[in-house]
Write a structure and sequence with these properties.
368 residues, alpha/beta, 7-stranded mixed beta sheet, 12 helices, 7 strands, Spore Coat Polysaccharide Biosynthesis Protein SpsA, Chain A, binds magnesium ion, elongated, 12% strand
Length: 368
């Protein structure tokens, strides 16, 4: 039998922990290939969570306790991962909240996916069959759904729908390769970072639907503002998509600004002013994308390569101009000229931005 260690990070979960441990071990009888162990990582809870665990431990040899300082959820998981691999011979580790929000009945299903070849199984709330509590206030639902969407689009990995779920099963090789890279993420943003790194290591990700229930006992420890800020910073600094959008905006400002000066102040021909300003924006986009947005795939410093890539970049840019011009004419023909700015925004956001981003990734800055 292989060992799966279910890590339960706890801070003041004295009202939940006993029921949860009991329900987890009840799953054992459904499993043929896996032996379940539970590792509680308690960050010095003042409510006596650790004492309760110690008491149960006397009659449950597969229950383990790691007592740590209070340094945040991410740090607790890193300690739990390291201990599970080095002391408990884990082949798979689970992440699971200890407040009964995650249903232990799902554990065999996670392991079933691992048996079928997954490296990283996510309990997902936003796929058919999954859910968040119906009685959540509107702002909380919105926050949860949109937060996830921003991370999905930001990281340009739409196939993963639940980036922030804390119910996951992960194979040993993924955990051991990634844990050393996670020490900077102590709070809840740890979950996003962990998944991102697993994707970069080409782990096979599978999602299964879960129902997320509200905790009945104890209080939430999440600091929402800190969580949002840290997550946005993560997406902002790690994702090429967001940087690419920023570079595009800088290009647009340059294009408009230079046109304005050349047309209004210098009195240059309209066509010449437009040509100069548009090409300046293209050059700026090319350089900023190369050295910032796609810096992890930066072009080799070879003059001939730059020339050929820059030529292709210009062709893609002309393509996006053609899409804009053709699209705006098309919508104008259908719905009238009056709403031209609306068409322009729509075409930019939904056609031109994805079009260029995909072509840049496929033609200019290819995966090495
Ligand atoms: N060891 C440890 N566990 C923590 C820490 N912070 C939170 N946890 C645990 O992490 C799990 C998730 O925390 P919650 O406060 O329930 O956060 P949440 O589930 O994202 O938010 P809610 O929906 O409000 O419950 C729970 O089991 C907490 O006890 C920490 O600093 N150390
Ligand atoms: Mg919770």
């Amino acid at each position: 039998m292989k060992t799966a260690v279910i890590i339960l990070p706890t801070y003041n979960e004295s009202k939940n922990i006993e029921t949860l441990i009991e329900q987890i071990f009840l799953q054992q009888k459904k499993l043929k290939l896996w032996s379940l162990s539970v590792l509680v990582v308690d960050s010095s809870s003042p409510d006596g969570t650790a004492q309760i665990v110690k008491k149960i431990k006397n009659s449950q040899p597969k229950l383990h306790l790691l007592e740590t300082k209070k340094e945040g959820l991410g740090k607790a998981y890193i300690q739990g991962f390291t201990h599970s691999l080095s002391h408990l011979s884990a082949e798979v580790v689970f992440e699971m909240d200890a407040d009964l929000s995650h249903d232990p009945d799902k554990i065999p299903e996670f392991l079933g996916e691992i048996d079928k070849g997954a490296d990283f199984v996510i309990g997902a709330r936003y796929i058919p069959g999954g859910s968040i509590p119906k009685d959540w206030a509107f702002h909380r639902k919105l926050f949860s759904v949109f937060g996830n969407l921003i991370v999905r689009v930001g990281m340009m990995k739409l196939s993963v729908t639940d980036w922030t779920s804390g119910f996951r099963a992960i194979k040993k090789w993924v955990v051991s390769e990634i844990t050393p890279e996670l020490h900077n993420y102590s709070g809840y943003v740890f979950q996003v970072a962990l998944l991102d790194k697993a994707l970069k290591k080409k782990a096979k990700i599978v999602e299964i639907p879960i129902h997320f229930s509200d905790r009945k006992y104890g209080v939430s420890k999440i600091n929402s503002v800190q969580y949002i800020v840290q997550t946005l910073i993560y997406v902002f600094t790690k994702s090429s998509f967001i940087r690419y959008v920023i570079v595009g905006l800088v290009g647009a400002v340059l294009d408009f600004g230079i046109s304005y000066v050349l047309i209004e102040k210098v009195n240059l021909y309209l066509w010449l002013a437009t040509l100069i300003s548009a090409e300046t924006a293209i050059i700026s986009n090319f350089l900023f994308n190369n050295f910032w947005s796609f810096s992890h795939k930066k072009l080799e410093t070879k003059f001939s390569l730059y020339v050929s890539k820059f030529a292709k970049f210009n062709i893609i840019s002309v393509g996006s101009l053609a899409i804009q011009a053709g699209g705006i004419e098309f919508f104008g023909y259908l719905f009238g000229r009056k709403y031209w700015y609306f068409y322009k925004i729509f075409i930019l956001a939904f056609i031109v931005i994805p079009y260029s981003y995909i072509l840049y990734n496929k033609i200019i800055w290819k995966e090495k």
